[in-house]
Hints:
Blueprint: H1 3-16, H2 18-55, E1 61-67, H3 76-83, E2 88-95, E3 99-105, E4 108-111, E5 114-117, H4 119-125, E6 129-132, E7 140-143, H5 154-158, E8 176-183, E9 191-201, E10 214-217, H6 220-228, E11 235-241, H7 247-256, E12 259-263, H8 264-307, H9 309-317, H10 322-367, H11 384-410, H12 414-419
Parallel strand pairs: 5-10, 7-9
Antiparallel strand pairs: 1-11, 1-12, 2-11, 3-4, 3-8, 6-9, 7-10, 8-9
Amino acid sequence: MLFKDQLEFIRTHMKRNKMRVSTTILASAMGCAFLIVLASVGFGLHKTITEDVLDNSMVTQIEVPGRESTDDPITSADTDEMRALDHVIAVVERSQPEVEGQVFLGDRSIYAPTILTKLEEEKKAGLKLAEGEMPTEAGEVVVGYHFAEHLLTEAEMENEERTEDMGFKGSLIGQEIELQLTPYEGDAEPATWTFTVAGVAAESGKDWQVDTSVYADASWGPVFVEQLELPEVYTSVLVYADDLQNVAEVTKHLKDDGYYAYSVTEELKSMDTFFAALKAGLVFVGTIAVLIASIGIFNTMTMAVTERTREIGVMKAIGAKPKLIQRLFLMESAAIGLIGTAIAVVVSYGVSILANWIVPIIILSSLDGEGGEDVAITISTIPWQLVLIAAAISITVAMVSGWRPARKATQIDVIQALRQEM
């Protein structure tokens, strides 16, 4: 029997019992759809949390707090070696003196953290300016994005209600500011230095972060330490890779060289492990639904064998081999699983789109406008890999369910089958 004749044979018999076959296909589709939708929630949550981590992190940044084997600080020679590593575009050394910093501009003032760094390296690392230019002299500084709006007069400070008209209006570029530093400990008197604002840093990707810092050249570190009698200033080292895909390689290299190193890839690795287990569990639970649906396929194929006993006898009498008869029934059960899977995929995508549309609306309404405009949640995502996995499980289960009835069909006695009434 030609393959097209086999397909026609299957189609004819499926049409003969439309109601029973249709309900079996529906059960198979529901089981497969449940598997896809359930697992898609795991994929959706994984995508949401991963995007949130990437949006709220400097993805190419690697923190190097120190060495694993010693408490000795990282030296300039060490940072030079780090800069020589492949895929490293910048190594930033930041230090923050143990002082209280207050900035004055006319009758306005602000308490601002003072960060000492090499601004050329900061620029290589991706520090962008919303206004102005990077400093070219030691007496120039860059201020944080929110510096101006928190630069208040005494009257504005006393007003507990913040309004939009508060803060410094106009451009800070070229303005001379007085930076007064007061040590947290010791008997040294506060000291004041005058700087010129050369640039204003761009807004951070972290919406929650308020940046009112003053970024000054690292050469001021020894000056502050000597005049204010400060302890040795702790320096943190940040290494920047050229691309996210190279962060893991650079992080591993730094660890191999004996440094503590942390990057966003460490967090993503832990998340990937957790969500891999979660998605596997959801697929397992969904597979149980497919197995339950397979009972219907087993019953349908068993009934088909019983109803076609005489027909099977005729096929055997004219020379049909048992393997052909078994193949026909297996193909029929596979067709039920295939059609059910196709319907399930369409339904699953529809449910996924609906969930991603409705759930964020519900969340927004529950937040009553308090930060709800920033909510970006993906409830369900259906990657093509999930479709293939679900299809493989569904069709395999369908064929396994049809194997026993198909095997039974090959064992029918020809004489007994021909004696059976139509």
